Amino acid sequence: MKRKFLEELGLEQEQIDAVMKEYGSSVESYKTTISQFEEDLVKTKEELANKAKSLEEFEQKANLSEEQAKELQQLKESYEKQLEEQEKKIKTTKLNSALNVAIAKSGTVDEVALKAHLSDFLEEAEFDDESGTIKGLDEKLSEIKQEKTYLFKKGATGVEHKEAPKVDTTLEEINKAMGVK
Fold this sequence. Notes:
Helices cover about 70% and strands about 0% of the residues. It is mainly α.
């Protein structure tokens, strides 16, 4: 979100600062979550690489009996399965993090409903490691914004706009608006 856009909407500097601060904090929390997952990913990959190296070294050094060779083979298969499961978890985590960031930026009024409308798309969605986004998500969100405008705040800025009060409002009009007789 850009300040110029908010200025064009007629917001005052104080309002713009408040909107940008809130927007920044929500995006930053998602970025922090993503970086934590990336750190965990690096650590996990290092651990798995060390285990694989240890298994290879053990296999080379040992004169194994038939029973030990079978056990080693089972350990290798278990390792491969764990590696595959870990890669799936990492892919899912990256996809969910990118989705949460995109939804936070979209200006939706109902994240759950928007995710429901994206569910078919997400079943086949691919995460782009290079850009850190989901391929085609921006286009899909634009399509949903046009079809389902009720899911998004006016202007999709995350700011609900209210009509400015009249300058020449009389006391009688104010009391009437407040329900005072």
